[in-house]
Design goal:
CATH class of the largest domain in chain A: Mainly Alpha
Number of strands of chain A: 2
Mean pLDDT of chain B: 84
Oligomer: heterodimer
Number of strands of chain B: 10
Low-confidence stretches of chain B: 1-37
Mean pLDDT of chain A: 83
Structural class of chain B: alpha/beta
Number of helices of chain A: 14
Largest sheet of chain A: 2 strands, antiparallel
Number of helices of chain B: 12
Low-confidence stretches of chain A: 1-44
Strand content of chain B: 15-25%
Bound molecules: adenosine-5'-triphosphate, magnesium ion
CATH topology of the largest domain in chain A: MetI-like fold
Strand content of chain A: under 5%
Largest interface: A-B, 21 and 28 residues
Number of domains of chain A: 2
Helix content of chain B: 25-40%
CATH architecture of the largest domain in chain A: Orthogonal Bundle
Strand order of the largest sheet of chain B: 6-7-8-3-9-10
Strand order of the largest sheet of chain A: 1-2
């Protein structure tokens, strides 16, 4: 097929005589491509700079071209959609960025429901910080949980249990977040309040676990836990996937050297899957950053930067948008769209980092 | 089938089908012929299964210390399976089963009180495809066994150099010990894997077609290495290369499956197997007439 297209024949099955023609040509062509300057004989060996490097052109068969076009347009379409979303948010929120300036990111007040004026101030710092704190707690809790689960499923669970666990995990990843929110509200929250109290009692000297008053309900801690449960299935499935890619001959090699199963996991599987797991964590982080309804249900949304993770009150950009959208004035709507743009950018950055890390690990694995 | 055993303490017995009890007795008898204090590896009536699939049947072989034994036979006759019985790696595959005995210095390695991990330290293995750990440097690869099995050594550098010298790799890598193992050629990687296996000081070294991915030059280096190593350890090597078996091994065992489970057709001195085999199938195989 390759030789047919090189000869300019568009169809796959060339007629017999054509084929024999190409076959008779083949050695010549191959010879020529190995020795670009063979007609110059000895000169090639003596004067190296005489060798002319040839441009190597790979001709694509028609099927390839069509497929190439389809795939390219698909990729372009998603890029265009992504761009138009960002463009829309930026366009509708632009007035806010120009009115509020950098204060929109750093300010901590959300005042004025009327139109534009000197008393109207919009700054999303508390919600931006809340988004980040909530997601970090979520990843911090979910990561060890997920890696442990993935290792168990991949290396310890008997085959029957393994299949069951994998389908449960896939199912868990598909559960709508409102379900997680309701479960968090009624089941996890009462328990987590107790855990928060205990943490504060025993580890209160640690700055992170200090509270200004003993109100533990609706805290970043509880919100983060719900998010952790929500993103664990995603991180687990990515981790399981990369762990399962560990070449079996490496594990065999480690076991043959007298390594126990756990040593082989620690010294072979974990280093092999590290970047992939980090990529999975970033995906989870991205999902946690944008979570709306679970946070809306579980957290007491308070417009104040709260770094005491056990203390009540926080929020994130997504839940704030949902909370305020209903009764917002046209000007406030612009501010909410501008907040959406900020969230978009933050999520994009996280995902770009995730992609870079995953690619990097794939490249390392391919070596 | 039963090969003559002309040398004391150096014979290999192979039992065919027949009555299992008697064959096991044969195995025991041959063990009793060992000079007292002699050591090595021995299997008595070894069987292996993958689920319902009976992969090898009733293999009784002796591998005396300081010798090289070649395992030969057509593809799929159970050589790798047999090898993995000897360091208890067969049991890693779910659903597998084993019967018989494997004696290391007279001690049954499948006895319930035996720690399989310790056995793998004493019975090292080199695989068909070089499998250095890609995330580790050359030096870390050689010493990986110490880390994996949590063994303490006083002088790591001495051990590192010693193993690399014995594996015939020292000269080539001594200036780049910190480089990634992936930067070595295939032949160098395989010798690195040999060095890595040596670092935990095994008594027996199992090699499963260690040269099948190597060029003739590297193959020759590895063969030299094998001959040198055999002065101090028991080596069992699977190979499809008859010349290689003839070059490196003192004894040979010919495996054949003929549709059923793999069995040892004939075993004995390599010179006998290659020049004057008892079984016509052995003659056919070593002369390349089938397989
Ligand atoms: N993991 C496995 N699961 C099931 N059957 C297996 C497995 N490994 C090997 N077998 C079977 O056991 C038999 C012996 O295989 P083995 O790999 O020991 O052959 P071999 O002699 O090493 O062959 P080769 O020379 O090709 O390496 C074969 O019939 C094979 O199909
Ligand atoms: Mg094999």
């Amino acid at each position: 097929m390759a030789c047919a297209s090189a000869g300019g024949v568009p169809t796959r099955d060339a007629s017999p005589n054509l084929q024999s023609l190409f076959i008779s040509w083949l050695p010549l062509v191959r010879f020529a491509s190995i020795w670009p300057g063979n007609d110059r004989g000895v000169a090639v060996a003596v004067e190296q700079h005489d060798i002319e490097q040839r441009e190597v052109v790979t001709k694509k068969p028609p099927v390839d071209k069509v497929l190439h076009a389809v795939v390219t347009s698909g990729a372009l379409a998603s890029l265009v959609i992504l761009g138009s979303i960002a463009g829309f948010l930026l366009y509708r929120g632009f007035q806010i960025f120009s009115d509020m300036g950098f204060g929109f990111i750093t300010g901590s007040t959300w005042e004025g429901t009327g139109g534009e004026g000197e008393f109207t101030k919009y700054g999303i710092a508390p919600m931006l910080v809340g988004s980040i704190v909530l997601s970090l707690i979520a990843v911090f809790v979910a990561l060890p949980l997920s890696v442990g689960t993935a290792l168990f499923v991949e290396f310890y669970a008997p085959p029957g249990l393994r299949r069951v666990l994998i389908s449960i995990l896939d199912l868990a990843a598909a559960i709508p977040s409102v379900i997680y929110g309701l479960w968090g509200l009624f089941v996890l929250r009462p328990l987590a309040i107790g855990w928060a109290e205990a943490l504060n009692d025993h580890l209160g000297w640690f700055p992170l676990f200090r509270v200004e008053a003993t109100f533990f309900d609706g805290s970043p801690f509880i919100g983060g836990l719900v998010l952790a449960v929500m993103i664990s299935p995603i991180i687990t499935s990515v981790a399981r996937e990369v762990f399962s890619q560990t070449p079996p001959e490496l594990i065999d090699g480690a076991r043959a050297l007298g390594g126990e199963r756990w040593s082989a996991i620690r010294h072979i599987v974990l280093p092999f899957g590290r970047s992939g797991v980090i990529g999975g964590a970033m995906l989870g982080l991205g999902r946690a950053l944008g979570e709306t309804v679970a946070i809306y249900l579980v957290v007491s949304i308070v417009f104040k930067i709260n770094l005491q993770i056990l203390f009540t009150g926080t929020g994130n950009i997504a839940s704030m948008i949902a909370l305020k959208f209903g009764e917002a004035s046209p000007y406030e709507v612009k501010a909410l769209l501008a907040s959406g743009f900020v969230l978009f950018v933050v999520t994009l950055i996280v995902n770009l980092i995730a992609t870079a890390i995953v690619n990097n690990s794939a490249r390392k694995a391919a070596k | 089938m039963f090969s003559e055993s002309p040398l004391e303490g150096a014979e290999i017995t192979a039992s065919g089908v027949g009555s299992t009890m008697r064959e096991v007795e044969t195995g025991r008898d041959s063990r009793n012929l060992l000079p007292s204090g002699a050591s090595g590896l021995e299997t008595i009536g070894a069987h292996a299964w993958f689920g319902k699939h009976h992969a090898i049947e009733d293999v009784s072989l002796r591998f005396p210390k300081s010798s090289v034994t070649g395992l030969i036979g057509p593809s799929g006759c159970g050589k790798s399976t047999f090898l993995r019985l000897l360091n208890r790696m067969h049991e890693f595959i779910p659903g597998t089963a084993f019967a018989g005995q494997v004696l290391l210095d007279g001690r049954d390695i499948y006895a319930p009180e035996v720690n399989a991990t310790e056995i793998r330290l004493k019975v090292g293995m080199v695989f068909q495809k070089p499998n250095p750990f890609p995330s580790m440097s050359i030096a870390d690869n050689v010493l990986a066994g110490l880390r994996l099995a949590r063994i303490k050594t006083a002088d790591k550098y001495m051990l590192l150099e010693d193993c690399l010298v014995r594996a015939g790799l020292w000269k080539e890598v001594k200036d780049r010990l910190k480089a990634s193992a992936g930067s070595l050629s295939g032949g160098q990687q395989q010798r690195l894997c040999i060095a890595r296996a040596l670092a935990v000081k095994p008594e027996v070294l199992l090699m499963d077609e260690p040269c099948s991915a190597l060029d003739p030059g590297s193959t020759l280096r590895v063969e030299e290495t094998i001959v040198q190593l055999s002065e101090a350890m028991t080596i069992i090597i699977v190979t499809h290369n008859m010349q290689q078996a003839a070059r490196v091994s003192d004894y040979c065992a010919f495996f054949l499956s003929e549709g059923g489970p793999g069995r040892v057709v004939e075993a004995g001195l390599t010179s006998t197997i290659f020049t004057n085999p008892v079984d016509p199938r052995t003659a056919d195989y070593v002369q390349g007439r089938f397989g």
